[in-house]
Write a structure and sequence with these properties.
mainly beta; 2 domains; 16-stranded antiparallel barrel; 19 strands
Length: about 375
């Protein structure tokens, strides 16, 4: 009985692969499989669906400080390995989303749960979410890692991103030609998988997305390539603010040194970003400012990046990025300028691609120069 069941399942999946992802039936369920789109199983009465996909990023990093006494460092790694589960249940207004990281860096510390939330959308213009997920900070971070042009997000993002946290999030969607997408969150303020938070110390974040030229084709305002080759210029800009009420960790949601209760202070972060796409060209920029009421305890400073890239018709893309991080009058980070050159070859859009970039970093605080070369192969099922 069990043997026959599994044989039937294997036959169904084989049929899907041979049919190039056409929809077939497996028992009472409707099953669809397509490369780059994952596996989808839907109940015949539409009471529930399951979408499954995986993402794999294999990478080589080679870094060299331009000093005779410093040696070249090389890292071979599975940078990201993600399992994604999402779908609806009961009706199409209730969604669930679970994402697990099985990359070595997360598995060895037992921190594999990235996202786990339920979202309810009673009307088209509003949704509420409860659980763990990305906070409404900067565009680079909200956009999935698989949708980036460069091998890795900017240093601006690495320093001051909000990343993920547990709590409530509220989403809005208004307008027809000029779109407005507000987003608000209330969360623990201590980051993902943290479960010892005092309820008095919460994080509050708000983000406003403005799309004056309307929706991007393929809803790609959080994708850093112009696969659709927008026939008319598409532009979006956003502002966000985060207030973390006395976080217990030096870097807020990103962890760091534990700060004693009596010394904890409030942390404020401001984000702005823009994105422009037109006929294969993509330009983006972002600025982050973080200030703490005690900058000797928390990571604080400013960072800005600007990137421009062009997607050729043969599915290769070339781009440059500049990133500057500095303390300003109140921060405590090093002043670093970074100049990056990137190249990508899209075998099947973002589902299967090869990426490489090279970055020259000028650390003005320590008077050091370094070079970082990265190569990455990405596979998304």
């Amino acid at each position: 009985m069990k043997k026959s069941y599994f044989i039937n399942k294997i036959i169904v999946l084989s049929m899907l692969l041979l049919c190039g992802g056409d929809i077939v039936r497996a028992g009472n369920a409707i099953v669809a499989l397509k490369f780059g789109k994952g596996l989808t199983i839907t109940a015949p009465d539409s009471s529930m669906s399951l979408y499954f996909s995986l993402m794999l990023q294999n990478r080589i990093d080679m870094n060299k400080v331009f000093d005779k006494q410093e040696k070249l460092t090389t890292v071979f790694q599975v940078r990201r390995a993600r399992l994604k589960f999402r779908g609806f249940f009961l009706n199409h207004k209730l969604d669930y989303y679970i994402q697990l990281s099985v990359a070595p860096n997360d598995v060895k510390v037992g921190n594999i749960l990235l996202d786990g939330n339920i979202r309810y959308r009673p009307i088209k213009q509003f949704a509420i979410q409860f659980g763990q997920g990305k906070l409404p900070g900067e565009r680079e971070e909200i956009a999935s890692a698989e949708r980036q042009f460069f091998v890795e997000r900017s240093t601006s993002n690495a320093l001051f991103k909000l990343d993920r946290d547990f709590g409530f999030q509220f989403f809005g969607f208004f307008g027809k030609k000029f779109l407005f997408k507000p987003r608000f969150s209330i969360s623990s303020g201590e980051g993902r998988n943290y479960n010892l938070t005092d309820v008095q110390h919460l994080d509050y974040a708000v983000r406003f997305d403005f799309l004056p030229t309307g929706e991007f084709q393929d809803n790609s305002d959080y994708t850093f390539q112009d696969f659709a080759r927008e026939p008319k210029p598409k532009f979006t800009f956003s502002v966000a603010y985060d207030f973390n009420n006395r976080p217990s960790l030096q870097k807020g949601q990103l962890g760091g040194t534990v700060i004693p209760e009596l010394q904890r202070q409030n942390v404020h972060t401001i984000f702005t970003d823009v994105l422009l796409k037109y006929k294969g060209s993509t330009a983006s920029s972002g600025y982050i400012y973080r200030k703490a009421e005690n900058n000797n305890l928390y990571l604080a400073g400013q960072s800005v990046y600007v990137s421009i890239s062009y997607l050729f018709k043969k599915m290769t893309e070339l781009g440059v990025r500049f990133n500057r991080s500095f303390s300003g009058k109140t921060g405590n980070i090093a002043t670093v300028n970074e100049y990056s050159l990137g190249f990508a070859y899209y075998i099947f859009n973002n589902a299967f691609k090869l990426q490489t970039d090279y970055t020259i970093a000028q650390n003005k605080t320590n008077n050091l120069f370094s070079g970082l070369w990265r190569f990455q192969m990405q596979f998304v099922f």
